Amino acid sequence: MNPVGKPGKTGSLMPVEVALARLLEMAEASPIVEHEYLPLAQVEGRVLAEDLVSTLDLPPWPNSAMDGYALNLSDWAGEPLPVSQKVFAGQSPEALKPGTCARIFTGAPIPPGANCVEMQENADVQSDGSVRFVEALKIGQNIRPQGQETTVGELILPAGTRLGPIEQGLSASLGCAGLKVVRKVRVAVISTGDELVEPGQPLGPGQIYNSNRVLLCSWLLRLGCEVIDAGILPDDLATTRARLGELQNVDLILSTGGVSVGEADFLGIALREEGELALWKLAIKPGKPLTFGHFRNVPVIGLPGNPASTLVTFALLARPYLLRRQGVRDVEPLKFPVPAGFTWPVAGNRREYLRGRLEQGRATIYRNQSSGVLRSAAWADGLVEVLEGRTLNVGDEVVFIPLSDLLG
Ligand code: AMP
Ligand code: MG
After folding, report:
1. Is the pLDDT of residue 127 over 60?
2. Which residue's CA lies nearest to atom 6 of ligand 1?
3. 3-state DSSP of 204-271
């Protein structure tokens, strides 16, 4: 492994994990407690509100894993056996007649008295219809026993599980027609800045298009949130105060921009005057400044406005916060070590989240890592974590966080 570079000065910067721990603590202090019962087809992206416990054995009865023949090994001495019944999936077989075998198909219940299934490929059907078994046989072979997957009373999915197609399928296999889920978190999205214009409008001098609004709104929908799109806030205190005041029935106000302690930090002023404000300088790049506070009683997270900063801080801080508010335990994204396909000669004092890709098993990074460059993330399929104080040679280990995991 490459020698770790001299630890950069972090000064008063807050480490990412400290900021995350504080946010999660605050999320736990105001959990969403309301539940609703939804039909199974509608629970995708939602969070399970109570433990799902099995009321069934799965499979409910022993069944065949193969198309073949069921027999009882204790009454068989090697001779061909006549076929006494045929059992398809969905049928209820009779007890196996001693000295016979049953034709059986995959998923069909094992006839009482049979203790072995031989696959049809190893069965030699004689001219009189009886079946000779050519391979050695074992008790229990090709039989899926009752309760092999699940038994009655077993905890299948704990409360706090995020529900997707697999959990829906699993719940269906247990006969659940619907599930109790946590109410959606209501998130108001605000973009701040006099320079912002919505796409579709002509750009005036000094103006740029608002990219954070649609990015965050779509992402929040993927996380199972209800989105209140609160549009663009001009850099003006009275309007900021008035607009925040209109958003009192939401669970979170999520804003971007205006948190860099610049002169146009009206969000910060409004929070200070009518709520509380913590301004964090994070040891994270992109995305140093982050605001957490309340406007009256509504929690507010203020993300930095540069689009790549918005993306990184939302992914690593706001996303887990929102999941935890819904009671999700496992809010950490998938992370795995990969060799770096790039060098990092100068150690930084902030943890870098470079927009990168896996190419031939190595992490490569986009050529322009500026916090204003959203194209870097569109090119990337993950964030490459480089710890503060580190330098890297090609082949050194870095941590890769797939965007696909963060986005869902
Ligand atoms: P601020 O934190 O308001 O100083 O913004 C930092 C940078 O991000 C500035 O260059 C802003 O123009 C830009 N920015 C802020 N909000 C947005 C947005 N919603 N879409 C695109 N760029 C933004
Ligand atoms: Mg601004």
Report:
1. yes
2. 305
3. CCCCEECCHHHHHHHHHHHCCCEEEEEEEECCCHHHHHHHHHCCCCCCEEEEECCCCCCCCCHHHHHH
